[in-house]
Design goal:
CATH architecture of chain A: 2-Layer Sandwich
Largest sheet of chain B: 5 strands, mixed
Strand content of chain B: 5-15%
Strand content of chain A: 15-25%
Order of helices and strands of chain B: HEEHEEHEHHHEHHHHHHHHHEEEEHHEE
CATH class of chain A: Alpha Beta
Oligomer: heterodimer
Order of helices and strands of chain A: EHEEHE
Number of helices of chain B: 17
Radius of gyration of chain B: 21 Å
Number of domains of chain A: 1
CATH topology of chain B: Cytochrome p450
Largest interface: A-B, 20 and 22 residues
CATH superfamily of chain B: Cytochrome P450
Chain lengths: 64, 405
């Protein structure tokens, strides 16, 4: 599975980083950066959670 | 203004009614039956109250069909009629009154200041502030009034330092902040206080224009000073000061009271560092202090919970109801700090999701366990039934709380 982050939509709330900082980070402007793509199986549950929680709807989980 | 309208209302509007921590059962009835009900807002104007978690979440995520702009020429009843220019001045910089893409422009200037990493850098200073206030409480001895000695000054000092507001002015703007959002204060007085607050903020903005400091106001002037009007700077800074004051402080007082009423959960927050993060989320959900209802205006005809709402109507979203919806979690009326359920609406959702949420979380994660560890025998020093809840306030909380240890 891959995760995509729309950096134009992102508002920098940081919910994804709070959910799993192994996969998501924020740049100096606070905007989302994806650290690991494709998503390792062990992180999939947390990434799904981050996609669901993202306030701006910037994250999408994509099938291979 | 007539004599009658100068009197405080006997009851808050339906969606703000509560008993202690719980929203009124009327909200549950609406949520379980129609889901949406026509109500009168606090200004006596008609609106559609939305009560279900999933509907609220969907509306908050849909800025195109549910706008934050007020209809042109909209004046709140009881306030002096304002010209379009005056309205634009007051709205400038108020992120909560904007839609994308204008909202994104301002939000992007502020998001670097609230990243998870920035918050971690603030942590030692927040710990220090918390410890200083606990020291002072201890020196003063029991009993103590928790709001004035702990819950209010900690977030207040933090936001002042962050923003660049002199802490010595706290009494004046603290009083304004508390009264401005209190529905039992006549609307004309509340708007007068808002104007006073803007004048105060104008003086700070002008100072930062002349000599930008290392704080957030200084950063905004240095990095974005040419893109931002004075009114925008006043609006942004005013909103952050108000939000920094009236939210975390009430979470700290009300959250402490909720934990005192649930002693096993209080012990877990005190003794188990891993319990603290989930406990903060659960307290934010369970207490839902932003109780005034989040307004949006429909831009086209929509259906919510099967109810048709025409274009140009006000919808009011009840966060306390959405956070107590069994669609979100099982047994929503139970406080259970171990459930660690995410997805609550306590910080909102969508592009207006609370900018200060990472700061609020950090303050609460530090302050709750520090208070409980300093005073392991913390207890109420007044009867629970006599505690003064802020029933009429946009932000729910406590006016005061006497504690002993």
């Amino acid at each position: 599975m891959n995760v995509s982050a729309d950096r134009d939509v992102c508002i920098g709330a940081g919910m994804c980083v709070m959910t799993t900082d192994a996969i998501f980070d924020q740049d100096d402007a606070g905007i989302v950066v994806v650290l690991a793509d494709p998503v390792p199986d062990g992180e999939l549950t947390r990434v799904r959670e981050a996609v669901k929680l993202c306030p701006s709807g910037a994250l999408r989980l994509l099938a291979d | 203004m007539t004599q009658a309208s100068a009197l405080p209302p006997a009851l808050p509007p339906l969606h703000m009614r509560r008993t202690h921590f719980d929203p009124t059962p009327e909200l549950r009835q609406i949520r379980e039956s129609m889901g949406v009900q026509k109500i009168e807002t606090m200004f006596g104007t008609p609106a559609y109250l939305v009560t279900r978690h999933d509907d609220i979440r969907e509306i908050l995520a849909d800025a195109e069909r549910f706008s934050n702009r007020r209809p042109p020429g909209f004046n709140i009843p009881g306030t002096p009629a304002a010209t379009a220019d005056e309205q634009a001045d007051v709205r400038a910089g108020n992120l909560l009154g904007l839609d994308p893409p204008e909202h994104q422009r301002l939000r992007r200037m502020l998001s670097p200041e609230f990243t998870v990493r920035r918050m971690k850098r603030l942590e030692p200073r927040i710990v220090e502030i918390v410890e200083q206030h606990l020291d002072a409480m201890q020196r003063g001895g029991a009993p103590a009034e928790l709001v004035a000695s702990f819950a209010l000054p900690i977030p207040s000092l933090v936001i002042c330092e962050l923003l660049g507001v002199p802490y010595r002015d706290r009494e004046a703007f603290g009083r304004r902040a508390a009264r401005q959002l209190d529905l039992s204060i006549p609307v004309a007085e509340r708007f007068g206080l808002q104007r006073e607050g803007r004048e105060y903020m104008r003086s700070l903005v002008m100072g930062a224009r002349r000599d930008p400091g290392e704080d957030m106001l200084g950063m905004l002037v240095r990095d974005h000073g040419t893109e931002l009007s004075d009114n925008e700077l006043i609006g942004i800074a005013g909103l952050l000061l108000l939000a920094g004051h009236e939210t975390t402080s009430n979470m700290l007082s009300l959250g402490t009271l909720a934990l005192l009423r649930h002693p096993e959960q209080l012990a877990a927050v005190r003794d188990d560092p891993d319990a603290v993060g989930p406990a903060v989320e659960e307290l934010v959900r369970y207490l839902s202090i932003v109780q005034s209802g989040i307004p949006r205006v429909t831009t086209i005809g929509v259906e919510v919970a099967g109810v048709h709402i025409p274009a140009g109507q006000v919808v009011v979203l009840s966060l306390p109801s959405g956070n107590r919806d069994p669609q979100l979690i099982d047994a929503p009326d139970v406080l259970d700090i171990h459930r660690g359920a995410a997805g609550h609406l306590g910080f909102g959702h969508g592009v207006h999701h609370c900018l200060g949420a990472p700061l609020a979380r950090m303050e609460m994660r530090i302050a709750f366990p520090a208070l409980l560890r300093r005073f392991p025998g913390l207890a109420l020093a007044e009867p629970f039934t006599g505690v003064d809840f802020r029933r009429f306030h946009f932000i729910y909380g406590l006016s005061s709380l006497m504690v002993t240890w």
